[in-house]
Design a protein that fits this description.
Elements lengths: L1 H7 L3 H23 L5 H13 L3 H10 L3 H10 L6 H19 L3 H36 L5 H62 L1
Amino acid sequence: MWQLIVKGGWVMLPIFLCSIFALAIILERLFFYAGIKFNKAILITQIFESVRKNKVSEAIETCEKNSFYITNILKAGLMHCEESKEIIKESMENASLYEIPKLEKNLHFLSTIAHVSPLLGLLGTVTGLVQCFYTIERKAASAGVVNPSDLAGGIWEALITTVAGLCVAIPTYIAYNYFVHKVNMSTLEAERAATELLELLSQKKFRSDI
């Protein structure tokens, strides 16, 4: 394996670094989502039940004990439960500006690696082929005879970088799309929970006014 990397030339170094960064980002994102082990649906239902029973402080405490993006957004709205609907909505929207980017952390780097890695592989192949044909030209000019093994050997060495770039790009792109899907689903969950809480607080306030 080490000999293949060496034969690939200097372009193998940035490809190797891309693989390290991609692996680090993927593991960090997996640990991040694995850290949310509790059942979100049950937890959100528990918060809403506390609000229905006029136990807002209990709902806020539940959010603080189970801190993640949805509970942090709901907590922002609960902290202003006595205010108008517009203020509650604005509070949760402001909280989402801090929480949603946490879900997207480093995904743009993952996307960049997935797109750049095959380009680096192609660059290594092109530079390798240039060097290969330059060697063939020198041998043809000096000896007049070119060994077919020189051509074949130079070409397969040049193609190593393309293979390496694709080996990095394919799993990285798959992981990127998986995490993008997770972000979209998580954002949708947060929006639904925030809308439901807003309607619940509005109804309770309307009833109290009556």
